[in-house]
Amino acid sequence: MAMDEYLWMVILGFIIAFILAFSVGANDVANSFGTAVGSGVVTLRQACILASIFETTGSVLLGAKVGETIRKGIIDVNLYNETVETLMAGEVSAMVGK
């Protein structure tokens, strides 16, 4: 299997994952800081700075655990050793369906 054939799927998966991460992060921030900003306890600028720090810290510290759970706890990737392209297509499809 030539990996160059599937580079488009990797790029598409990266773009979809970026959009999903951005939208989920924005929703987290809105839920966390909406009341505080609305009541005037923190300014919008302060909320954005705090959210950037804590969202990034959380993803760096916990991102590997999430990946490990997906890899070991949800699907058995060893079933796809012979058909890696099927696993890639399934992962991209799952992200699109989110």
Entry summary:
With about 100 residues, this protein is mainly α.
Structure, explained:
It is built from 3 helices and no strands. The protein is mainly alpha-helical. Helix 1 (7-39) crosses helix 2 and helix 1 runs parallel beside helix 3 (84-97). The protein starts with 6 loop residues before the first helix and ends with a helix.
* Major sheet: none
Q: What gross morphology would you assign?
A: elongated
Radius of gyration: 18 Å
Q: Decide which structural class fits the backbone.
A: mainly alpha
The stretches of 5 or more residues where confidence is low (pLDDT under 50) are none
> What is the mean pLDDT?
84
> How many helices?
3
**How large is the share of residues in beta strands?**
under 5%
Cα distance spanning the termini: 28 Å
Order of helices and strands: HHH
Work out the helicity level. Answer: over 70%
The overall strand count is 0
Compile the SSE list and pairings.
Blueprint: H1 7-39, H2 44-74, H3 84-97
Helix pairs in contact: 1-2, 1-3
Features:
98 residues, 3 helices
